[in-house]
Ion channel (Pseudomonas lini), 149 residues
Amino acid sequence: MLLNLLAGLPVMLFCLLMQAVFITICLRYYVHFRHAQSAHESQWLNILLLSMVMLLMSLSNFVQIAIWATLFMLLDEFDEFLTALYHSAVNFATLGYGDIVMSSRWRLLGPLEAANGILMFGVSTSVMTAAVMDVIKHSMDRLKQREHP
């Protein structure tokens, strides 16, 4: 168990830091584009902004899945990267199919990755929710301005 933690916790920490970087970049660009479009806000720009937030958060999660798959390859658990990637995605998304399992020596990395994944999906969801709420707020403000000039 200690060996699993020594192998998995640095990867988990790296993934957490990477997610923070993705969030920072995502929110920085979101605020920049939101500020730039405030004078001529449109439905299509809102759709584009929300789509970019969702795409970046999904990309971040996929990169983390690939990082875990790389760890599994380095530990010689799989012969092919695609198999490691599939197994990693099942763990990260907490699906738990069980059709591919790791050796008993490294099996506890699965729940560790699942804990990482559920946390990262939660963080991604909160970022997307914040962006949606911001779009709603700005839309409501513009509607109020039209009603009460």
About this structure: The chain has a mean pLDDT of 91. Residues 2-147 form one domain.
